[in-house]
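Example 9 (inverse folding). The structure is encoded as follows.
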């Protein structure tokens, strides 16, 4: 039975990969054209091409979504902070967000043929190895927020395969929220590591993906002295909510 299951899973992943690439090449000419309109206007149009891709690909591979909202959708720009469980998370974000946004993305991804071009047009690139490049990324994110476009940041900084709900958060998203006086909206991708394992590019499986929007966290009146408390507040909110959906092993005392 296990051999049959692995064979069917391989066929399914080949099917998913073919459609992934086919839709990507279908939208590539359009993305190239709209990219000529600049980073903001053109980037917003790129979002809708990617949204078409996501709305087409996920049903074709048997992945469906349940959206759980604690509050109404955001009409003003916010900083979305999301947990990061697998490579599928970026595609999920495009699927479930209804308004254009920009994620913060690793610069290494631009090296992938064809996909790298699309990636460059749709994210704010960051080179974590270069301090000057990181500073430029922060300036770009702030300029994007000023233009009324929301940002998406994975505050864990990397994919979480610890077996716990979250890794420790970095300061960047919270510092930017305070400096830009932009509220934070925590978002949880509950099942993405069950659909695609953190270390398994060929481990995609069909099924449900639950996405939870937690209440917005106001930064009104906060200063950088409040950054640790703000970060802890958001972390605790996300950690507590994730524990409602899955059981996690207890941490062993040091």
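The amino acid assigned to each position is listed next.
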């Amino acid at each position: 039975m296990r051999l049959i299951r692995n064979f069917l899973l391989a066929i399914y992943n080949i099917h998913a990969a073919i459609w992934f690439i086919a839709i990507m090449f279908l939208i590539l000419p359009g993305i190239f054209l709209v990219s000529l309109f600049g980073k903001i206007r053109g980037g917003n149009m790129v979002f809708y091409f990617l949204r078409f891709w996501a709305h087409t690909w996920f049903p074709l591979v048997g992945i469906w979504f349940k959206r759980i909202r604690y509050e109404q959708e955001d009409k003003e720009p916010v900083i979305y902070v999301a947990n990061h469980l697998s490579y599928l998370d970026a595609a999920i974000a495009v699927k479930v967000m209804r308004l254009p946004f920009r994620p913060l993305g690793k610069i290494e991804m631009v090296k992938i043929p064809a996909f790298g071009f699309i990636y460059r047009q749709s994210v704010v690139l960051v080179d974590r190895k270069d301090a000057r490049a990181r500073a430029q990324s922060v300036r770009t994110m702030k300029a994007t927020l000023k233009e009324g476009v929301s940002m998406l940041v994975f505050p864990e900084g990397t994919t979480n395969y610890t077996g716990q709900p979250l890794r420790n958060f970095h300061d960047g998203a919270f510092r930017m929220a305070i400096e830009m006086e932009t509220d934070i909206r925590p978002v949880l991708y509950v099942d993405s590591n069950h659909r695609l394992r953190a270390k398994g590019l060929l481990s995609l499986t069909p099924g449900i993906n639950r996405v939870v929007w937690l209440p917005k966290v106001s930064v009104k009146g906060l200063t950088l002295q409040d950054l640790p408390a703000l970060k802890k507040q958001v972390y605790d909110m996300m950690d507590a909510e994730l524990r409602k959906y899955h059981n996690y092993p207890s941490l062993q005392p040091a």
